[in-house]
Amino acid sequence: MLRLPKFEVRTPESLDAALALLAEFGPDARVIAGGTDLVPNMKHELVTPRIVVSLARIPELRGVGDAGAGWLRLGAMTSLADVAADARVRAQAPALAQAAGLVAGPQLRTMGTLGGNVLLDTRCQWYNQTYFWREALGFCLKKDGTLCHVVEGGSKCVAAASNDTAPALMTLRAELVFVGPQGRRVTPIDDLWLADGAANKKCASDELLVEVRLPPTGPGHRGAYGKLRERASIDFPLLGVATRIELDARGTITDADVVLTALQARPVRVKRAAELLLGVRAEGDAFLAAARAVADQAHRQAHPMPNIPGDAEWRRAMVPVYVRRTLEAAARGAGPVHAV
Amino acid sequence: MRVLHLLINGDRVTVAAPEHWTLLEVLRYELGLTGSKQGCDKGDCGACTVLVDGKPVLACLTLAALCEERAVTTIEGLLPAHVKSGGSGPDPVQAAFDECGALQCGFCQPGMMLSARALLDRNACPTRTEIQDALAGNLCRCTGYTQIVEAVELAVAKHCGVAPRRPGSARPRGRSRPPPRRA
């Protein structure tokens, strides 16, 4: 039985009231959206806030809508199940719909939110454990200790970014809208990340992620998401691959992007993906050769740590396989790639 | 402590509970509704699945203080709801689980049946794949899932008025069995 440490629950009914609570209590307050990341972490005493601020009663944070000029706005409190099922998201951003639909299992997708998945805490086998367990090993670099159990003598935390939607949003060039004491801040999702597992996001504790904005895509847009995990039903990714291909009217690739997750503390973009695929028709042997070249590049860049389930060498060996398959799925307008 | 005004299985309930308790703790330790099981207690196993506003969620990760003004259905509420809506006896999903022997230890069963009920409420005639997807967040360590999928298919077949598949036909997809060893 895992009991929660004591805290008080607040349920503000407006954004201003929520921000006022965050300003008042500072680091003693934590925001709860779906609770599927925060509640287990509180049970493990990884975070022990005095005040838990729920965003459930702020209706404007929920739902998918038109943001003008072809942009789509997704409220941060929109559930992952709703993102996965939304017809506009599926049409405009298939990789995001697929990624949201592969997060954990049905109950967790019903509870979990898009904003919560973007801001998901990093994960490590030495970190996501009970206080008793962690104490027995003298704690770790990320929480309460000074020693890394993954990298001998390591001084930088290597806990893995494990959010499925993040790489998909990066390929889509999504923007995040934060609201804080200084007002609204719009930032490309690429600029959110830090390569530090202890805190891998540039986001202040007194600001709220309120909205994810997706730029318009044309009829030549293709996207897919591939996810490696041990059980098809409930697990975090051992590897996540998001791909985007843009085709012209003749089916020739004009732009491409591939982003990997669950390999290190932040999602990683595969270098030269667009260059390797540019000008290739998205079918046949030439495409397969180009997809293999991108897969080889991804393999060279991938250095998974032995800190989440699954053998690290196996996870690395799966990187080119999943990159190639996910590119092929995107080209066919198919996906997700998810063979367990 | 906090006084919570909850709506559990159609009944308005006022209960005082520690503010940091989960819905599962309030159900089990304040209201005596022990049908919702405490398994992993961290969102992996699905044994604590309940319906909130008709959707399956994990009671072990849901704060009770955030459930006010929302309709909670636990396994204890399935039969009364079925009777109230004009049926007799247990919910068809419960009857089908009984008929198919879709349990061994029974620990996963309340969550399984609630996930199945939520599926049938939004899709009265799901395919086998849809059933498997809807039950993916409920782990069973005994049965191998065969009879569980068959039970949901039986409930679907009865509802849709078609013959159920033959028993044993709902084996999990994937690898076939190894060939029998020759002597």
What is the H level of CATH, i.e. the homologous superfamily of the largest domain in chain B? Answer: Beta-grasp domain
The name CATH uses for the topology of the domain at 221-331 in chain A is Enolase-like, domain 1
The outline of chain A comes out as: globular
Q: What is the subunit organization of this protein? A: heterodimer
Major sheet of chain B, described briefly? 5 strands, mixed
User: Can you say what the CATH homologous superfamily of the domain at 221-331 in chain A is?
Assistant: CO dehydrogenase flavoprotein, C-terminal domain
Main interface by residue count: A-B, 30 and 30 residues
Structural class of chain B: alpha+beta
Name the helix and strand elements of chain B from N-terminus to C-terminus, one letter apiece. EEHEEEHHHHH
Number of helices of chain B: 6
Radius of gyration of chain A: 20 Å
Mean pLDDT of chain B: 92
Based on secondary structure, the structural category of chain A is alpha+beta
Which bin fits the share of residues in helices of chain A? 25-40%
* Counted beta strands of chain B: 5
**Any idea what the CATH architecture of the domain at 221-331 in chain A is?**
2-Layer Sandwich
Form type of chain B: globular
Strand adjacency order, main sheet of chain B: 2-1-5-3-4
- Adjacency order of strands in the biggest sheet of chain A: 4-5-8-6-7
Strand content of chain A: 15-25%
Main sheet overview of chain A: 5 strands, antiparallel
Task: Please provide a written account of the structure.
The complex is a heterodimer of chains A (340) and B (183). Chain A has helices at 15-25, 38-43, 80-85, 87-92, 94-101, 106-111, 114-118, 131-136, 165-171, 273-277, 284-301, 312-331, and strands spanning 8-10, 29-32, 51-54, 64-68, 71-75, 175-180, 183-188, 208-214, 221-228, 239-247, 253-261, 268-269. Chain A is of the alpha+beta class. Among the domains of chain A are: 8-54, Uridine Diphospho-n-acetylenolpyruvylglucosamine Reductase, domain 2; 221-331, 2-Layer Sandwich (Enolase-like, domain 1). In chain A, the strands form 3 sheets. Chain A has a 5-stranded antiparallel β-sheet with strand order 4-5-8-6-7. In chain A, α11 (284-301) runs antiparallel to α12. In chain A, 54% of the residues are buried. Chain B is of the alpha+beta class and 183 residues long. Chain B has 6 helices and 5 strands. Chain B has helices spanning 23-30, 78-84, 92-100, 109-122, 128-134, 146-160; strands spanning 2-8, 11-17, 49-52, 55-58, 71-73. Chain B has a 5-stranded mixed β-sheet with strand order 2-1-5-3-4, with helices on both faces. In chain B, α3 (92-100) crosses α6 (146-160). Chain B is globular, with a radius of gyration of 18 Å. The mean pLDDT of chain B is 92.
